[in-house]
Amino acid sequence: MRKEIPFLISALTALFAVLAFFIPHRPFGGLQQKMLVWYSVVTGVAMLIGVESLLNNHYKRIRRQENVLYSSFLILGFLITFVLGVYSIRKYGDAFAPNSPFMFIFNYAEVPLQSTMFALLAFFIASAAYRAMKIRTVEASLLLAAAVIVMLGRVPAGAQLWAGMPRLAEWIMEIPNLAAQRGILIGVALGSVGMSLRIILGIEKPYLR
Length: 209
Fold this sequence. Notes:
By secondary structure, the chain is mainly α. It has helices at 4-22, 31-63, 68-92, 101-132, 138-153, 156-161, 165-174, 176-200. Helix 5 crosses helix 7 and helix 7 (165-174) runs parallel beside helix 8 (176-200).
């Protein structure tokens, strides 16, 4: 029963979602909105379980003397943020109020950390672009030429070199690039449909992992 009940819940939920999409009449018409409410409830419970699992995992690491400093900072940061969030809600009515302590932590701790992470990603993207654009084949040469034209077309220096550079860059983005994007999206959609059918039929069971 540990396998059959999750499979039945998954299959029936997917079936009702499909019926609600194609039959906008009662009793299926309002079912999709109700399922979205249930989804929100389940997501909230899953987040609580995830937070409990995260804190418990780092607490065990502290007891085992593994990465004590990082785990201690995580637990301490969570507790401070949680307490200030509750305090901000009780005093200001909203944790994201402009003058709330929670918003202070968000602006001066969370935002700089996110900016640092995205700044590090820029170096990885540049490294990946360098490896991908090495001229080894005809396709790589075309990719390099298109990338150079698009980059020059998006900066004022490109227009100074040639007045038609911005229009050429826009044509590359709207015609060849968009065609490739549509092909990728079609492939993603077909893959999603195939995986959904495998889950509905019980061939794939990611919810049991």
